[in-house]
Amino acid sequence: MTQKKRELGSDSSDEDTLPLGAKRFKQCKVEPEAAVAVSAAGAAEGGEPAKVENGDSKFLVKEAVSCSSSTTTTTGSCSTNGRADDSAGAAQGSTARGVAVKGSLAAALSNVKTDVKDGEMPKAAAAGTATGISRPSASPSPVGARRRNKYTKTEENFEPISRWWEKDLSQLENNVVQWQYLEHNGMIFAPPYEPHGIGIKYKGQEVSLPPEAEEVANFWCGVLESDYATKMRFVKNFWRAFLSKLPADHLIKQDPKHATVRLVDTEADGGAAAAAGENSAAAAAAARAPAAAAAEACGFEACDFSKIKQHLDTLKEAKKNLSKEEKEALKAQKDAEAAPFAFALVDWLREKVGNCKAEPPGLFRGRGEHPKQGMLKRRIFPEDVILNLGEDAPVPRAPDMPGHCWKDIAHDCRVTWLAFYRDSINDQVKYMYLAAQSGFKGQQDFLKYEKARRLKHYVVKIREDYYKKMRSADPLDRQLGTATYLIDFLALRVGGEKDTDEEADTVGCCSLRVEHTTLNSETEEVTFDFLGKDSIRYFNTVKIDSQAFKNLVGFCRGKKPEEDVFDRINSTSLNNHLKQLMPGLSAKMFRTYNASITLQQELQKLQPTLRKFKEEVETEHQKKMSKVKGKKTVKAEQEAAVAVAAAVATTTSDDDEDVPLGCISAKKEKKVTPVLDVNLSDVNQLVQAVAILCNHQRSVPKQHAASMARLEHQLQAIEEDLRELKAFQQHLKKNKGAAKGFKFHSDFVSLKGEPRKSVVRDGMREEAVTKKIAQVEKKKQSHLVRMRMKDDNKTVALGTSKINYMDPRITVAFCKQYELPIEKVFNKSLRLKFPWAMFAPSNFIF
């Protein structure tokens, strides 16, 4: 590791400290408006389109699209790496009456049928239109008719993309060097604490605090409304940290019993707070705050933090009451401060950084019953951080911290971390990596799933091996075989040894204790009850193989509850055994394999139904298109072409930014392309089954009850619409189609208190009402499914399975095969995380 420190106050110029990537972009930066001007000038002189040098790349600036009519304007188009920027000419083209389109768009329009005979001048051409497409003079111009959202393009729209997935698989697996050049600006540190000067009460007496202790008191007030304030271990660790920040002559430390910690009687103090007329938040805080009125109170119990809590609540409420503009301004300010640290330059390509902020100080919470919860996490400084940079990359300055410098600078191209420091609580290394959508993370995910795919060629051999070992006379082989069977059959984690004084007591397969299993000899069922990763409880009663059950009975015989079931093996020996069966195999690969193969098998069960439905949809679509095509007139085609040309020439919408200029309209194709409209609840139920298999659980979200209440209110609104439509249908039948005299009284109001709007429209006939009822019925069924899924999945973490265990190519291939919208299955974060999976063919098989 090479020492390469740079402190503030150096004599280097701004140009010397400029990052190499910034120098490169600074020399070749071309504004879109300037590029359009250059291109337009070249076109006016009859020359070739101008070429702009940009580093190692040459960007072709396309000719400006000219619009001519009674008022002649010009729109500009700047293309970089095949991507069009029409924002410069969008505003000018909004008043154009005719559009002259060159290049690929003109070629597309040349296919439009016309009634012009040979030798005749088209009417539109005589009026000054270059395309020869006519439009009635009374009709409004399509240019600017649609209201478009303002969209500003940035460097992200023009920079190249790393398509690493197009490389050979063996090249990725054998790639020891991860990068050739790496540059970034380090990380952001927590700002220094600004004291507010509000003290506390100790035995009823006002006590001031030094800034260090005041900050710790703020941390304590931040958890008063959580369950941590009721945990003795958390309170003891906090009180010890708080006392360490007080000087020796402080009033609290003068009390001989200042170290005493005793939780407060929350019922008595809570009742007193409620009687005082305080709100629920303040009442909860007072209930947990120590009572100073008792004469025998001492130590933690004698402290009253209510004034600090009230001050923090006031600040929190003031922040909530900010206007929308003020909140947006604060967000913009934070984004601007974080912008220099948000990206890294990897092999001259910009990649997003995952988390560029060092952990702020606070009270450690941990997961589950962590023995160190409540301890103080100290503030991280640049002296704690080691950066990883390219040897020729400039070393960034420590941000806004005069007198500080980095601990060290590394130049290790074999690793993917950007920086690291050590946690002050557990002495664990905290790394700063690139974001989930980066090339580094994408390659790791891709290789992980490829290894899991390779396991299917060995899984039969592996299962034969562990069934054979379960019947072996060697106790070591029996434990290896039984543990492998449980990991494969139940998708258990392998488990490792832990120091319960330093970490939470979580276990896996190899670290199971006798107290974690209950054996039923009559049914050969085993009940597992233990805390898994992140202190998530695993509780499962399952019938297992008879030989595996006999082995578990033998392993537990004569042992105490706190002794290990598998006392002859550990995670290391088990993984070494698995590597002998398949190169690179580890126990955790079984979870990925079983999750992915289960998803694929369950999706295949849906194929007959979906295939039949798809055929019906396509047949109906073809019938509709044949009718529409027969009714089309030449004039309608011409008007449609004019509208499309104008929309393409003036588009500034984000939705159309990737549409090639040779295409007529992506949105138009969406309207005529048959999309399989099926309920995706079945797909999500399969994801739920995989999540349950892998024990991906979560606590019930705090907003679950409110969300369900909102969905229930929406269901009532749908049912009210249905009642009105059915009543109107009966009215039409009784009055022979006459809508006169129909009245429907409804007391239903929206969540905002607004009266309900009627779904019955003027002039609705009985056929339209019947069709509308069918639509609302379908909407109701979809809403009921949505409510059921939301309630069923309130304790299931579906995202964990999608992110870490299920090969995304399985889902993408399924969606492509049956034209399901991938947005319904993968949210935006997952689509950004798995760009390589979006190129999977529709016939992909795991």
Quickly count the helices. Answer: 28
Work out the radius of gyration. 34 Å
Give the overall form: globular
Mean pLDDT rating = 74
CATH class of the domain at 680-839: Mainly Alpha
Helical/strand content category: alpha+beta
Question: Which CATH-level-2 architecture of the domain at 680-839?
Answer: Orthogonal Bundle
Describe the strand arrangement of the main beta sheet, using strand numbers: 16-15-17-18
Helical content (DSSP H or I, runs of 4+): 40-55%
Q: Per DSSP, what share of the residues sits in E-state strands of 2 or more residues?
A: 5-15%
N- to C-terminal separation?
42 Å
CATH topology of the domain at 680-839: Topoisomerase I, Chain A, domain 4
Biggest β-sheet strands, sense, barrel: 4 strands, mixed
How many strands?
Answer: 21
Uncertain regions: pLDDT < 50 for 5+ in a row?
Answer: 1-139, 266-295, 640-678
Biased composition (Polar residues): 131-140
Biased composition (Low complexity): 66-80
Active site: 805
Keywords: Coiled coil, DNA-binding, Isomerase, Topoisomerase
Keyword list:
single chain, 846 residues, alpha+beta, DNA Topoisomerase I, domain 2, Arc Repressor Mutant, subunit A, Topoisomerase I, Chain A, domain 3, four-stranded mixed β-sheet, three-stranded antiparallel β-sheet, 42% helix, disordered N terminus, DNA topoisomerase 1, topoisomerase, TopoI_cat_a-hlx-sub_euk, DNA-binding
